[in-house]
Design a protein that fits this description.
Blueprint (H helix, E strand, L loop, with lengths): L1 H9 L1 H20 L9 H7 L4 H9 L3 H4 L8 H16 L1 H7 L3 H29 L9 H28 L4 H11 L2 H14 L4 H23 L1 E8 L2 E3 L2 E3 L3 E7 L6 H19 L3 H9 L5 H22 L2 H10 L2 E2 L7 H36 L8 H26 L6
Antiparallel strand pairs: 1-4, 1-5, 2-3
Helix pairs in contact: 2-9, 2-10, 6-7, 6-8, 7-8, 8-9, 9-10, 10-18, 12-17, 12-18, 13-14, 13-15, 15-17, 16-17
Subcellular location: Cell membrane; Membrane
Protein name: Protein translocase subunit SecY
Pfam families: SecY
């Protein structure tokens, strides 16, 4: 660990990237303490003590949502816009063509994603302003519009901040902002455990049990995140003129968790819909139905796991085109030993991907609903550890470590001439 840190400090470029990223984190954390004008923050804080769902959303925003700061929506609209763009790219031929044009095509898609972020952010901001109208000091159209514009501007600034981190810092800037927001809540969680321990609400056995479960979850998430099925591929030798191509072996890495955290976001968004509608409708049976979907109820937990499994298969099928993969292998003279190129190869890859996706989907469902069982086993109230937050933190940490390692290896590589 010490040698790795010394390598970071020795390489000027890497040191500058790390310092710039940390400086952007400070800007992000400062913005979470700037309140939106015209809002009574104390009323919103009381609303966040009543449900685990709001506490989970507040965890992703780094506490900005409970403070109702200018970064209250966090980077969520950008994530939603990116997911929508990924799905539309497969349907719209123009977007699909842009995605294959290299850097210029990606710039066009990125620009449309930015516009989509602003549009979705403004719609979400208006919904939040209307839904939290009890906290507005002077309710009215002007106040609602001011709050919506402020929240949209905050999300747009975070999107720009993430792009700056991607360009001048280390790793994916959007992912690092979410990572920073989640990790920033860790001291509050540890302090809460300390208060419960000193007050006698829990004992040292509960804390040790929680620590063991947390460590086991981290190890499991790392193992599944890194897990992959390697399909061997052999390329036939071709002679073109005086040059020989192919004749080597490689593999196709099929990840166990190909969809990442996206299925959990999809599933939670679907299940939040009845609860959100109930906030705007004052009808008894609607409130009753919304109560069935409250966070942590048996029906909500079962549907949550079922939707995660469904969306894992759906998103994997959308983003991973098995037919194109098999066709490209055939085009460049590649084949899986024992299988004919073309449709037999595609069918084999599809069967393998279906089996490992089942394991990945069950893992995602388990890791998402596990916090409910952890709270019951450890008897620690108000516990938001685990699930999506842990998955994001571990995934971003692994990707960032790979980025840093790649820079260090590139700078230390000397070649055969010294």
């Amino acid at each position: 660990m010490l040698s790795a840190l010394s390598n970071i400090l020795k390489i000027t470029e890497l040191r500058q990237k790390v310092v710039f990223t940390l400086a952007m984190f400070l800007v992000f954390r400062a913005g979470t303490h700037i309140p939106v004008p015209g809002v009574d923050v104390s009323v919103i804080e009381q609303m966040f003590t009543s449900g685990n769902l709001f506490g989970l959303l507040d965890l992703f925003s780094g506490g900005a949502l409970s403070k109702f700061s200018i970064f209250a929506m966090s980077i969520t609209p950008y994530i939603n816009a990116s997911i929508i763009m990924q799905l539309i790219t497969i349907v719209v031929p123009t977007f699909e063509q842009w995605s294959k044009e290299g850097e210029e095509g990606r710039k066009k898609l990125t620009q449309i994603t930015r516009y989509g972020t602003v549009l979705l952010g403004f719609i979400q901001a208006i919904g939040m302003a209307i839904g939290l109208k009890a906290a507005i000091i002077n309710p009215g159209v002007a106040s609602t519009l001011l709050i919506a514009l402020t929240l949209t501007a905050g999300t747009t600034f975070l999107m720009w901040l993430g792009e700056q981190i991607t360009e001048k810092g280390i790793g994916n800037g959007i992912s690092l902002i979410i990572f920073a927001g989640i990790v920033s809540r860790l001291p509050d969680g540890l302090y809460m455990l300390y208060q419960y321990l000193t007050a006698g609400t829990i004992n040292i056995f509960n804390v040790l049990l929680f620590a063991i479960i947390a460590l086991a979850m981290i190890v499991l998430v790392i193992a599944i995140t890194q897990g992959q099925r390697r399909i061997p591929v052999q390329y036939a030798k071709r002679v073109v003129g005086r040059k020989t191509y192919g004749g080597h072996s490689t593999h196709i890495p099929l990840k166990v968790n190909q969809a990442g955290v996206i299925p959990i976001i999809f599933a939670s968004s679907v299940l939040m819909f009845p609860v959100t509608i109930a906030q705007f409708v004052d009808i008894s049976w609607v409130k009753t139905v919304a109560g069935w979907f409250a966070w942590g109820t048996p029906l909500q937990t079962f549907l949550y796991a079922l939707l995660i499994i469904f969306f894992t298969y759906f998103y994997t099928a959308v983003t991973l085109n098995i037919s194109d993969m098999a066709e490209n292998m055939k085009k460049y003279g590649g084949f899986i030993p024992g299988l004919r190129p073309g449709k037999p190869t595609a069918d084999y890859l599809d069967r393998v991907m279906t089996r490992i996706t089942l394991a990945g989907s069950i893992f995602l469902a388990g890791i998402a609903i596990l916090p409910n069982f952890i709270a019951a086993v450890t008897n620690i109230p108000g516990l938001n550890f685990g699930g999506t937050a842990l998955l994001i933190v571990v995934g971003v940490a692994l990707d960032t470590m790979k980025q840093i390692e790649a820079i260090v290896l590139m700078r230390h590589y000397q070649g055969f001439m010294k």
